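About this split. The held-out portion is used to measure sequence recovery: a designer receives only the structure tokens and must propose an amino acid at every position. Recovery is the fraction of positions where the proposal matches the reference. Here is one held-out target exactly as it appears in the evaluation file.
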């Protein structure tokens, strides 16, 4: 096995243990600080989502002042992800995907795109709504 891959696997295992420890100490719902914006939730606002807070909407308003095309770019980014996953499932024959979401739900995720592209495709990942 490639040494870089071994190092990456070790880092992921350490991170996983850190998250498990934090979960045991603080519980799942203490991961969210609703007094501070999260870029994942700001992105959710830009996509018209519902899993965000006023602080996230305020940050988006500031972003839109200097970058009015943010919402369009977010939608194009999501659409691109869906197209790529569908292409890989249909044309390249890939039938397993690892979905590592940002922590907020999305209207169309890798798992949805993979499942609709090919009956034999599936996506593995985890999502929990800490909000």
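Reference sequence for scoring:
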């Amino acid at each position: 096995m490639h040494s870089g891959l071994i190092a990456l696997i070790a880092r992921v295992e350490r991170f996983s243990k850190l998250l498990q420890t934090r979960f045991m100490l603080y519980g799942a719902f203490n991961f969210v600080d609703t007094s501070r914006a999260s870029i994942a939730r700001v992105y959710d606002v830009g996509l018209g989502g519902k899993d965000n807070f006023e602080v996230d909407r305020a940050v988006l308003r500031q972003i839109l002042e200097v970058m009015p095309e943010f919402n369009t770019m977010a939608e194009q980014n999501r659409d691109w992800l869906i197209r790529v996953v569908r292409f890989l499932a249909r044309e390249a024959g890939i039938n397993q995907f690892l979905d590592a979401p940002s922590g907020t739900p999305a209207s169309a995720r890798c798992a949805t795109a993979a499942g609709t592209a090919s009956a034999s495709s599936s996506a593995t990942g985890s999502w929990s709504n800490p909000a």
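Annotator remark: The chain has five helices and two strands.
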